[in-house]
Amino acid sequence: MSLEAVELIINSVSYYIREHADAETKQPFINIVRQFIQKVVIGKTPGHQPASLEVHGQLASILAAMEATTIMEKRFEALTRHDYLEKVRTGELETEAKKQKLLDAYAEELPLKRLEWPSAF
User: Fold this and answer.
1) Alpha-carbon distances of 39 from 1, 24, 54, 59, 77, rounded to whole Å
2) Taking the model in full, what pTM does it have?
């Protein structure tokens, strides 16, 4: 499921709960939100900077895992780009078919790497 689809679902449910649900219907959703966010710390910043916001709880862990996954993806992309350019430089990829085969292999490897990364954190 794409990030946009998840966002649409969350926004739709939030709108429905906020605008149309009674207190009894809202309570399970409030409990879910409380499980994700245990504490929010708002800190002062110097000058006219926006206040700092620190979130504690499962949501913070989810956000950290997402950031770590993004970093790992960028690292994978950099390593594959370096590998690809090195193979082009040495003449290993003299045909378009060989280039495409290598790019396809990288594309197949990335989803497998994504499955490994969350367990590493």
Assistant:
1) 28, 24, 8, 10, 36
2) 0.54
